[in-house]
Amino acid sequence: MDLIDKLKTIGERIAKTKEQVTTEEATKNAFVMPFISALGYDVFNPLEVIPEFTADIGIKKGEKVDYCITKEGNPIIIIECKHWKEKLEKHDSQLSRYFHVSNTRFAILTNGIKYRFFTDLDAKNKMDERPFIEFDMTKIDEVIVNELKRFQKEHYDESAIIDVANDLKYSKQIKELLSKEFKTPSEDFIKYFAARVYSGRVTSKVIEQFGELVQSSVKSLLGEMINERLQMAITKQDAVEETAELEEENTVDDVPTIETTEEELQGFRIVQAILMSEIESSRISYRDSKTYFGVFLDDNNRKPICRLWLNRSKKYLGIFDEEKKEDKRLIEKIEDIYQYADDLRKTAKFYE
Question: Which tens digit of pLDDT belongs to each residue from 74-86?
């Protein structure tokens, strides 16, 4: 089982059982130990995962951190655990004290659901104030999993993680700043853009005027970027479907598995009716396939008139242009084909 599957399984279990986990010790057993195991470490081997690891600070004795993961006898990661209902931020200073005396480069603070990964990028042997990785076990995605893979026993490489941690830490802070500016632009943020597009002197009145412009422009741009990504995804899916269609057309299947539905036949009759004023109905034929229902002129696959895509949650009518490129139109019901009567007649005339 891949790491992402293991972590998602843990996340699903957490969502279902957390209300029954009433103590910090139960949190460690039910949520944290499975996470450590998912990274490939043997939680029952004290030479690999040390529970209650000693982290004495100066004259203060008896200080313990919940877990310490070791490699070749050397501590590499300490983990401090809290009950799943605890807010982690108020325990950062406690973990920082343990980090200072543990001789590790990485420290994890967790309540079994949320995880905060720290290192010492700002000052050697002093834990950074901000984590370089934060995530929620119930919202695991591939981006987080790719970072966690670096901590797996079989892939662990301290120097490589430190290099990536530097980028992750500052990238995270930049994204937080951008998110804040996008939601509520600061005066400096507004002034930056106003000074570059406004030809006059940037006064407080101009900044006030540009405040709404900047905010609306950001929202518009983000919306356009999202739509562009969605369109790219749709185009990619269409390409996959087109490849599947070509493979299907080139495959000989001795066992017929295609069933022409009454809805497809109804659509065919509608196309016939639309074209009757231009072409004899006997010249209009159809061929059914696993993925679409094709309508042709003179039973010639070089003369496609349209395709009906009805065997899916969303229905489409595919109309061909002079270059035989298909343009899919969304239809809610089969009668919507009548809305494209002129386009269908135009396509049929290409072949006359």
Answer: 999 999 999 999 9
